[in-house]
Amino acid sequence: TWEALRPRSPPKQWSKLIWFSGAIPRHAFNMWVANLNRLPTKARLASWGLTVQKTCCLCNSFDEDRDHLFLSCAYSISIWNLIIARLDPNRRLILSWNELLSWIKRSSTSAATTLRKLVTQSAIYNIWRQRNSAVHLNGFATAQITFKTIDRDIRNTLTARRHRRKFNSLMSLWIR
């Protein structure tokens, strides 16, 4: 019955960047919603007719949409600079969502790709979390503290999966 009711379409090109073995479920779900551009950012809320101030609550400089919040906000840039310094020191900043997805895919080894997926999902999740803290609790952690949370997420994930063949070399890639 399920197969008859549900139309079958080919998987999206980005599906393996989000849904993969070893992903943290809440991070993967948040990344999925962000990728579809369905997170209730202030710009989206305003487009629905709600009366909200559209300014980003992390930098107070630009309208808060997905690309600004996760990639071009000063807060997010600080976090991405720390991530890129570890994973891809010769890389310049990522400026668009499509560029972020391309960066995740671009790698010489599957281990490095897996690590980029984990780190990106953790970064998106934790930036969104801090954004929600700023909106609902009137305060948020510094970019350095958020990066430490991302680092802890990655270390915990890699430690828990260290006996899996796919994950046994990832810790050395992350710590270097």
TrEMBL record:
| Domain of life per record | Eukaryota
* Alphabetical list of InterPro entries matching this protein: RVT-Znf
Reverse transcriptase zinc-binding domain location is 1-80
- Identification of the protein by name: Reverse transcriptase zinc-binding domain-containing protein
Organism of this sequence? Brassica oleracea (Wild cabbage)
Q: Which lineage is the organism of this entry classified under, starting from the top rank?
A: Eukaryota, Viridiplantae, Streptophyta, Embryophyta, Tracheophyta
